[in-house]
Amino acid sequence: MSLSFPPFTRAIKVLLGINVGVFLLLLILRTTGEGAAAGIIVRTFGLIPHDVVHGRVYQLFTYGFVHWEFFHLFFNMLMLWMFGSMIERHFGSRQFWEFFLFGIFGAALTTVALAYTVGGIIHLSPDIPTIGASGGIYAILMAAAMLYGDQEVFLFPFPFAMKLKYLVAVLGFIALAGALSGGAGIANIAHLGGLLFGYLYLKLVPRRGLTFAFSEGYYGLRNYYHRLKRERTKKRFQVYMRKHEHDPKQYFDEYGNFRPPGERDKKDRGPGGWVN
User: Domain 10-205, what fold?
Assistant: First the structure.
């Protein structure tokens, strides 16, 4: 048995820097007597379902970079480093950003949807802000369980190893129990949303990611549009030629390629000559 630490990959370093920087800004404001300003930042960039449905859709992403308590930030960043670096090496930095933001967005969407449907049952109010990167981190945990489920890890401070798929199952059960019991101060719905959207990404999104799928779809539609334009132009030209009693075969070969004027009057000279 050996003890090793994951590397600080490119996207992980940027995410750590953003989250720690925002936390330090809020901490400085609070310690210098500007707690009201810190509260405005949280309510502006945190996830508030009421604000989202009234136009502040940017909150579906920005809430994932805001932390208020030190230990909330510490454990989120620890999990991000431990498991996020593993997933970034699998996806690559560009697609890892896409996957992480997909998890953040999915967790936020789940929170907003449930706040306006079964919020009274699960004690989720549309006016209470949700902050933290847990949605994206739980999506990362789901990806780790699906890709490296049999890999064993030690969960501090427990002195025994556990397979990743069982660890994520336990964390998912805790989040579900917390959501049903109305665990105060913990965004259990965001955790469950992150797990769900992490699963959906790996199951439904093409291997090279959403960006690749959208670009392929765009170029496919563009090429189809140009083919339709060429077909319409071809039909119009044929109608024009028939009206003027011209044979289109004089201008195009059997493959639809344009014949230069110098080749139109050439006769079939029979066998002989070079054959390529």
Answer: Rhomboid-like fold (1.20.1540)
